[in-house]
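Hey, I'm writing a tutorial for new members on how sequence and structure tokens pair up, and I'd like a real worked example in the thread rather than a made-up one. If someone can provide the structure for the chain below, I'll link this post from the tutorial.
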Amino acid sequence: MRLALGMLAWASFVLAQGYYLKKARHFFIGSPLHEVPLCAIQDGEGFLYIGGYAQEKSFSLSDGWLVCSTQEGNILWQIHPGGLGPDRIEDIAVRDSVLYFCGSSGSALSHPEELPVERRSDFWVGAVEKSTGRMLWQRRWGSPRIDMSHTLVVTSYRTLIVGGVTWEDSLMGMQGVLFLLRAQDGEILQKRLWGHPQSLITKIRPVPNSTYLACLGEQRYIPFLAGIDAWGQVYWRIHLQSFRFPSRLRALSTSEDGRIWIGGQREGQWSFLCASPEGRIVWEQTWPDNGLTGEIFSVASGAHPEILHVLGWQYGDKLVSPEQRGDRDIWLSALSAEGKILWERGLGGPYAEEGVALLSKPPFSIIIAAKQNTLSSSQQGDAWVVVLEAVPCSELPLQARTSATAKERAGSAVSFWVETRPGYELAHVSWDFGDGTRAEGKEVQHTFGTPGTYIVQAIVGLKYGCAEVYLEPLTVRVSRP
């Protein structure tokens, strides 16, 4: 009977669902300049495209920054577009052989000369050849006041929808704006003001298998989610009243079944919600107050379709490891499709870090973060890339071991332990010795009082996935004393 139960447990191990996220490799991407990533995507061929801004020093005026890299960290090309004023790239998109970007530029001529250069800001959109980084076209436009583009998408009509904020009307104040541009050359085809003061548009993403796009923004300090078509017309809009200011919702993603994922911060804590394709809130999740504060910047599906990963930063005196106590540290969490928090972890070191973008290309999840490059001679800021590999629970390189010999005698202490490899962190280990007794711990000892054949089962839980895994059972034969 004990042998049969042990084999049944082993079968449960083989059929276990889920996976463990193991750090496969990490590397820096940048140059001797101080560079800060703000956005990133990965194309179908696996190449990484990162956008942000670059500075000679952390206090100098910025230029845009675009870089193309392999998943192993080999830089294929790197450019720093910009002008005499501050420029930064906020969002990027790829379609066919072209990489599109948008952001804000202080290098245009639409501002009064007496306005300090660091306060100049116009809309900035451009396109580069994604294989070489060659600039195809770029456009800057705006008003004498603040104008910023925060997000863009490529439509099926070969146009670009660009969202942001403008202050062109001094009486109206800051208000959200949408532009429709021709993707071939950036010509502005249409402009739509959001029509409300104190509003802005932060993120737009296509909804798969749908005729509209999801649009995230704020209106009178209250976040909203809207469905818009390829011309910027609004299908529906909901106000997320429970996330009232000072909440910030910055992450927006969509799934193949049309669900819309939104993440950010609510009253200092990580917050996340799921909306239906029609704009109905399905569930909301706010992390409990554990002495840490943080914000979600990016969300992506995991290696399993029912698992979501969210990325951002954390800050506080109660971080998991003392070596992570910098200004901010990278924070990653996993949720079920119903919003249950599965696990969370911090990554980083003693310097300030911030998770920016999360990319998913199963079995890999790729974190793009802003971090000080202490390995370079200049020790300036660069993009830090962490590649996490999803290892199925049925393929974990973990084994239960024992000191028992072929002639183990009753009354003698027998040692048991779990053999692990670097990169796998155990949360707990429980043992069933097959004689009605149990124990907890990675390394334990047990004494069998009577002769017999015992099936010893180790059940392990890992910190970042695979909460309960049955390892291959051990057979211990005990003879008379």
